[in-house]
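New to this. Please check both lines:
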Amino acid sequence: MNSTEELTIRLRQQALIAELGLAALRREGLQPLLETAARLAAEGMGGSFSKVLEYQPEDQCFLLRAGMGWREGNVGTARIGSDMESPAGFAFRSGRPVISNHLAGESRFRTPALMAEHGIRRAVNVVIRGEAEPFGVLEVDSRDDGDFTPRDVNFLQALANTLGLALDRELREREMQRLAELAAARAREAEEAVAARDALLREKDLLMREVDHRVKNSLTVTRSLLSLQARLSTGGAREALEEAAQRVSTIALVHDRLYRSDRIGSVELGDYLGGLCSDLERSAGLRDSGRSIRVLADAHECPADEAITIGLIVTEVVTNAAKYGAGAVSIRCLRDDATGGLRLEVTDEGGGMPPGFNPAESDGLGMRLILALSQKLGGEPCWEGPTFRLDIPDPASLRE
């Protein structure tokens, strides 16, 4: 081969390397890029056969990913050994190009079955790698006599290097896409989990409302039965039954508020006390005697159990005021900005408790209830003339 022919071949090979670079820039996908590299390798070396072998670490072999000249069905399925006795395996593991111009007489390597079946006489192998781990081997094979030269290796290695860099980018993009898809899948799972949680919360909300509704109905029935029994009774029994009915009504009112509340497990204390005192005006006989109850309370969300306890205390104090007090009854339940707690005050226009009154020594059920319920709230009740006062600490302070 004269120098002009040699120059023409090398220029053509440089053009083919550039063509592979342009193919990589088109980003048509991994398989089209491998097929282009196999075609350009065969064209640039004047061989009838070429192949791109991808290393399969789990099987310790190569997979024929792309190629020229092989029988139909070989590309994508054929596998070749990657051990040191295989030309491709030796190149891959040593990292050095391998030229074998006389496979039949080769003492270094065995001829892979695929190549023997196609009558391959000579081969040249170079490693495909970029910055990451080696991808595999680029190989050109021929049935013809002749020799592959170091210049052929230079061309094939330049082609493999270009392919390796393109593969790095392709694999990085695929990994980024995989991670993006994984992130999207996890985001969908999170959204589904939130939706499932919200559905469960809504279901729980409905169940809790249904429970409160049924409890309220059951307590209403109980109150009706107690009231009926009171009407059929006389004297102290009648009075005790009416008081019990009013206590049941106080608890039922909380569950009615819970059923109607926007927030599960809590009631608005001002509305609750207003509704409770409206019932007390009627049931305690205040309305019939021209007396009334005035309520001043903060708009305060109160846990159900605390509201029930406050309501029972108010019921007992107001019932006592209806029996022994005079004039209008005033109820104040306001937040103490200094402590974060509540101050409950119930006042009438009567003379208040008798001198020397000690609630701890009282035998009355109502008084014992007031003391026990006040203690439950963490407060100590006191009477100053006609005023009952109870300071209810902030629940958070009791936990500290």
In short: The mean pLDDT is 85.
